[in-house]
Amino acid sequence: MTHDKLRQIPSVDSVLAHPMIIAASHNIARPILLRAIRHVLDELRQAIHQNESIAIEIDTVVAEAIASAEQEMQSSLRKAINATGIILHTGLGRAVLADAACEAISSIAYGHSTLEVDVESGRRGSRIGHVEDILKNLTGAEAATVVNNNAAAVLLAVNTFAEGKDVIISRGQLVEIGGQFRVPDVIKSAGCRLVEVGTTNRTRISDYEAAITPDTGLILRVHPSNFKIVGFTEEPTIAELAKLGKEAGIPVMDDLGSGALIDLSLLGIKDEPTAQDSVRANCDVISFSGDKLLGATQAGILIGKTEFIEKCRKNPLARALRVDKLTLAGLEATIRLYYDQENAIKAIPTLRYISRSLSQIEKLADELSEKLRSILGILVDIRIENVMSQVGGGSLPGQNLESKAVTLRSDHFSAEDSINWFRKHKVPIFGRIENDRLIFDVRTLESEEIDIIVDRARGLVDME
Ligand SMILES: *Cc1c(COP(=O)(O)O)cnc(C)c1O
């Protein structure tokens, strides 16, 4: 009878007294163990209600409770391995930081810092001061400031210049960047009116000119980032917009999105504007992300004319969008690397992944496939295939990079099962599925990660 069976369920106390639980309690806090035990016993109770012939084994209960408690002890936000072929993967934390940035973050995290003091005078300083001069030197801008992310930078600037006024923008630039960032919505939430000009594919300088009224607060250009219109297209250059703005006495802003600080054609990527280009075009305010092509921490960088950057800084919203010390530490260390461009390309992982040569990629693919073959044997068909990596993070659509992937296909388990197996690891491993095979694009892998993948793959054999 179910009733008898339920009575055989061990008590919480008897599970707690089990030698394996006692051993586990050295590493796992008691409330977590208790919760796990209760949870496993509850599940057992429910299982018995459904099927009274189920076996009750204390060792199984103990093992399940420990596994569940260990899972709870594990950090939720933790290291992952990105073999998706998307270099700037927002879900996987966008830019991987340079060693210098990691060291700077760690050193600031461990103690007090000079965040808002001027060491020379001993007086209160500005947290932005740590990066302002570097950003000015690198871009040629008169002034710079930093906020939480680029969405915040756009919100702050649009609100500063056009609250209660019009923001003129081309219909071809009313983009959604992803993660709830839609340009028209941001303009509205900044308290501004959107004035659309031109058409999706063609907007002329005369369209902007005709839209200017005494109510105009800002002319905004937004880099379309994640899509590309090809064919019969036309848009004024940022220099033309800046000139129009000067004549009309209206600030002009360029939301660059990615914000490259070096000419990416050096790395084989075409048509990505640099922040310096927009400064030279005489644009008043320019914004870009810290953690896209720049390869730093999540931040929104605003550079431009002193008068306009000052206004943004004085906006009360700036306090709410303030950047924290760890972000600044990582940002400062990363942008310092750009003083030596050649070194920056080697030291900043985002740029290093973009510029990895096919022969370097091939070497990684060979290593991974050979190691996988040696443990998976004939169970899995392991190949090296040509694939395309993407820069990602809403950057450089249509500019895919030739890469190599190690692909796994088996008659013993589905691609779905294997992708889940690799993901449900203490260091989750992410690939992608195409035509029922699991694909690991090796472009963004580091050597030590190859061994983690191989180690996890051992379990695939038992999964059948
Ligand atoms: C990515 C992007 C943003 C948002 O930047 P976050 O740093 O992700 O907040 C805004 N504008 C453009 C054009 C972008 O590409």
Structure description:
The structure is a single chain. Strand 9, helix 12 (275-280) and strand 10 form a beta-alpha-beta unit. This protein has helices at residues 2-7, 12-16, 19-24, 30-50, 58-73, 99-109, 129-139, 150-162, 183-189, 205-211, 238-248, 275-280, 306-314, 317-320, 325-337, 341-347, 349-355, 358-376, 415-423, 447-457, 460-463, and strands spanning 81-82, 86-88, 143-147, 166-170, 176-178, 181-182, 193-197, 216-222, 252-257, 285-289, 300-304, 380-392, 401-410, 429-430, 432-434, 437-441. The chain is 44% helix and 17% strand. It starts with a helix and ends with a helix. With 464 residues, the protein is of the alpha/beta class. Helix 4 crosses helix 5 (58-73) and helix 18 (358-376) runs parallel beside helix 20. The longest helix has 21 residues, at 30-50. The model has no long low-confidence stretch (mean pLDDT 94). The strands form four sheets. Strands 3-11-10-9-8-4-7 form a seven-stranded mixed β-sheet, sandwiched between helices. The chain has a five-stranded mixed β-sheet with strand order 2-12-13-16-15. The protein is globular. The structure holds pyridoxal-5'-phosphate. Pyridoxal-5'-phosphate is lined by residues 149-151, 154, 177, 181, 222-223, 225, 255, 257, 289, 300, 394.
Short description:
This protein is of the alpha/beta class and 464 residues long.
User: Care to count the β-strands?
Assistant: 16
Determine the N-to-C terminus distance. Answer: 35 Å
Order of neighbouring strands in the sheet with most strands: 3-11-10-9-8-4-7
Based on secondary structure, the structural category is alpha/beta
**How big is the Rg?**
28 Å
Mean pLDDT comes to: 94
SS element count, helices = 21
Regions with little confidence, pLDDT below 50 for 5+ residues = none
Helix content: 40-55%
| Proportion of strand residues | 15-25%
Shape: globular
Q: What's the story with the biggest beta sheet?
A: 7 strands, mixed
